[in-house]
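tool_call: predict_structure(chain=1)
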Amino acid sequence: MDNQESANIESVHSQPPASPAPPKRWRVILLGFVILLLCTGIGAGVGYGSGIQQRLAQQNNQRLIIAATHFNYGVQAMLNGNFEVAKIQFEYVIKIAPDFPGIEEKYTETMVELAKSSLPISAIQATATPDTRGVETLYAQAQQEVNASAWLTALQTLNSLRDQDLYYRALEVDGLYYLSLRSGAIAKIQEGDLEGGLYYLTLASRFAPLDHEANNYALWARMYQTGISYWEVDWEKVVYYFSQLYQSAPGIKDTSGWSASGRYRIALINYGDYKVSLGEFCEAVQYYQTSKNIQDDASVEQKLNNANLACQAPALTAQAAATAAAAVTPEIIIPELPTEEIIPTEEITPTEEITPAP
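tool_result:
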C-alpha cells in the first residue's frame, strides 16, 4: 500500500501545471461596444454644437441685414421730414439690434424734432408769460373750456393752475386733466396728428384707465403708423393693416391728409401689380377688383381686364384647341355593300372523269 500511495503522489507531481483560463470573449466585446458609443456620442455632440453655432451666426447676419435696411428707411424718412415714420423705423431697429451703430443718435434726433413739431406756439407763449390770476378763477375757466370742448385751451389753463397751487382741489383738477387729455387726443388723431394723439393718450392713462373709445383710437393710430412703415417696402403688409382700418376706421388719416381708405386703395393696386409680375394673374384680379370697388378708376379697370384675360387664358386655350381639333378631323366614309346576288354568266362542267389513283 505504501508503494502504491507513493506512486500516485509521484504521478500527480509529475503532471505539468494547468495554464490560466483565457478571458471571456463577451467582456471584450462589451468593452468595445461601450467605447464605440462614447466616441459616437462625443462626435455627435461636437457636430451638434458646431451646427448651432453656424445657425446662430446666420441668424445674426440676417438680423443685421434687416436692421440696416430699416435704419436706412428711417434716415430717408428724416431727410424727407417724415419724423413719425423715422421714429417707427428706428424703434424697430432698437428692438432687433439695440447696439446697431448710430441708432441712438438718430432716434434721439428724431424724438427732438417730434417734440418741437408737437408743441404749439400758444403753449410756448403761455409758458413765457405765466398767468397770475387766482386759482379759483383758473379752475372755473378750465371747467368752462372743458364744457365747450376746448381741450387744448383747457390744458393750458390747468397747467397755469397747477403752477400756482399743486394741491388745489387735486381730485377735481385731475379729472379735468383726464377729460382734456383724453378728448384732446381723440381730436388730434381725427385731425391727423397721430403721434400727438398717442402722446396725449399716454398722459391721460396716468390719471385713469382709458375707455373703450380711447383705446380704439389708440389702436387705429398705431395700426396706421405700422402700415405706413411698410409703404413701398412690403405691399402685402400694407394691405393687411389698412384692410383692417378700412373696416373699422376708413376716415383716419395722417398729417399728409391721406385717409386709411385711400391708402388701402393704392396699396391694393400696387399689390395687384406685384402679383402680375409674379404671373399670379388670378390673385391679382381680386386686388384690382377690391380697389375698383372702393373708387372707380379707368386705369385700374384696364389692369383688371388684362389680369382677367391672363387668368382665363389656360381655359380659353384648351377650348380653342379642342375646337380646332374637331374642325380638322377627317370624315370616315364607309362604302355600302351590294344588295343584289351575283350570278356567274357561264356554268363550268368537268369534261373528263377523274379516276382515283390505284
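agent: Confidence is low (pLDDT under 50) at residues 12-21, 119-128, 320-358. Proceeding to next step.
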